[in-house]
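Appendix C reproduces, verbatim, an entry submitted by the partner laboratory led by Prof. M.T., so that reviewers can inspect both the input and the predicted structure.
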Amino acid sequence: MRKYTKGSRFRVLDLKFPILRIKNQKSKITNVSLCILLLACSMSVQAATLEPKTGVRPLGMSAFSAVADDINAICWNPAGLSLLEKQEATLIYSPIYGSDSGIDQSYLAYAYPTGKWGTVGVDLAFLSYGDMDWRDDSGSDLGTFSRSDYSIYASYGIRLVESLSLGISLGTTSVRMGTIDDPATGLGFDLGMLYTIASRASFGLYLENIGGVSASDNEIARQKIRTGAAVSVLDRPNMGLVLAMDIDEQQGKLDTFYSGVEWSIFGPSSFYVRRKLQERYVTLLKYEGIADYSEGLPEQVSKANLYIRGGIRKRLAVDESMAFSGGVSVRYLAIPKSLIIKLEHAFIWHPYLKTTHRFSLGLEMGQTVYQ
């Protein structure tokens, strides 16, 4: 059992709602102007980290705010939901900081892309902290108590103009302490942006819990901004390589630096393919029928893809040793054009805590929205 500390953190949900589309999609100036406006707004508002974060792929890479292009975008940058081409679902289980810590997390998510009207998603999360020691200010033992968090939220991401996508979220988490009948509930508001250049590079901005999250007059999540960049440096039919970088800002100071890599084997990089598919689709909407939307893309040469990931995390605000992460994923085409199965694993090595291992089962279902 562990001693309860006031600084224990937990993750709050995000519910997302549609964003109005901009009708004038004329020029690159529009894209750049929107980016500048959003970045300017971010200087006056910060957002918060909801820990522990979920998602096996992003945890393996460490940096993900500019990569976000699958169902993990729900928690890491909802703007990336606009890149989904099929329905996706994932189930995750993880003993946090080792199996003997008593902290367990379960997670279930589903996302449905509609095409030009964006993508909606919903997820459910349960986090149990197990039994903890209860002590008064003098250190006297008052017995034990348990804590558990329940979350449910919906997400929405949409492509506004050719290269710019936005996502917005509003969420709630209920926290139950011991035998208290009424759980504490916190609300949070998130905003995400994803800007892509030539299908090979992306810039992400994620404002988490704008204004902070409070429950029962206590702050449960501080405000934070996460910005990131990612680039595809290798795009071949049987191999791909993506490099990514994120940085967190908290309370007006740079807090944490993240860097990650994803190497795909036996197939092209999903980072490049998803962005290229959307780029081709947008072009064909303007010049309908001139070519197939998938023309020019690297073709997959195998039913199975292997992904190897790695990442680092370094605190900038405090003197702390570097943390490392990594993982593998197998993506298998079970039914042509209808079903893809993903088995994923990630680990996080922390300098002071035990290694966390996460496992997930993912599905990509149905026809692509571009067909």
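Residues 2-365 form a domain with the Porin fold (CATH 2.40.160.40). Additional entries are available on request from the coordinating office.
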